[in-house]
Amino acid sequence: MHQIDPQADIKLVAVDMDGTFLDGDGQIPDAAWEIIAQLQERGVAFVPASGRQFETLRTQFARLGDIPIIAENGTVVMQGDRELYSNVIDPASVAEMVDTVREQTALDAGVVLCGRRTAYVERSDGAFARAIAPYYRAVQVLENLHRVDDDIIKMAVNVGTGQVQAMAQALKLPLQVVISGSHWVDAMNHSVHKGLALERLQESLGVSPEQTVVFGDYPNDLEMLGRAHYSFAMANAHPLVADAANFRAPANTEHGVLQVLGAYLGSSARH
Questions:
Q1: Edge-to-edge strand order for the sheet containing 184-188?
Q2: Which candidate, 244, 251, 208, places its Cα nearest to that of 226?
Q3: pLDDT at 270
Q4: Are residues 166 and 211 in the same domain?
Q5: Domain holding 151: CATH number?
Q6: Rounded to whole angstroms, how far apart are CA atoms 107 and 104?
Q7: Given 147, 163, 188, which residue is the final one in a domain?
Q8: What mean pLDDT, rounded, does the chain reach?
């Protein structure tokens, strides 16, 4: 395990969720709350950074109050009810995305339109509802997604096992298409990602990359890792992430984020 310099002036810790901060059961480890409390006591901002919906993340971290949250793969940054940054997709591109997913009849696919107010779906079967539930707390089911009246900041497609590559290749859109999980393909405006969101947050807080720690495991974390000197790839990370990160952390199943942060908190307290 690589460690953070005990004398480093850390001011911000950003963590991806699935495969990184969450344990093998997809839960926040019980030990995390004490680690976060110690960070906050030292004036270090703890920031979840995920493809998940803001309302989902805010609920998961409700006990921490109005912390900064990077949601929807970096298309929105919120602190409580205050929007710090967002990036809206052109309605024509939204319509093209919906039509393209509908055309992929050979794939077990369902699209989620991530709006400012809530998430929108037109597929309502139980399997799809269960697949999106961990990521989207606020969801509205419509008969036709072309009738959504909201600003869309990200679009996500949930697909069956082994189908992400096929779906990503089918989405020939004027948008940035990224594989964000083993069952998820996301689309957003070009040059929008977690890294840009983190940069905007760093600017807002007056924090430098040298004062930032980032943990990630999947290619949608790459740009975010580039905004931190202390960029950690999980032991279970995608090879591209392992190559890009400056440091390594144990796997999420071993609570790797907490191991690294706990070691820093313990060692820095002695200096």
A1: 139-141, 119-121, 110-115, 152-158, 184-188, 176-181
A2: 244
A3: 52
A4: no
A5: 3.30.1240.10
A6: 6
A7: 188
A8: 95
Beta carbons of 84 and 202 less than 8 angstroms apart:
no
Domain region containing 155: 91-188
Q: Residue 39 pLDDT > 90, yes or no?
A: yes
Q: Which 3 state secondary structure label does DSSP give 8?
A: coil
Half-sphere exposure of 187 (CA within 13 A, CB side): 27
State the Cα–Cα distance between residues 43 and 24, nearest whole angstrom.
29
132, 159, 188 — which closes off a domain? 188
Residue 218 near residue 238 (C-beta atoms within 8 A): yes
End-to-end CA distance of the chain: 20
What amino acid is encoded at 165 in this protein? Q
Rounded CA separation 69/47 (Å): 6
Assigned token pair, 48 = 């979840």
* pLDDT tens, residue by residue, 15-26: 999 999 999 999
Which residue type is seen at 215?
F
Q: What is the CATH number of the domain that holds 197?
A: 3.40.50.1000
> Are 203 and 261 within one domain?
yes
φ/ψ of residue 182, rounded to 5: -70, -15
Number of Cβ within 10 Å of residue 9's Cβ equals 11
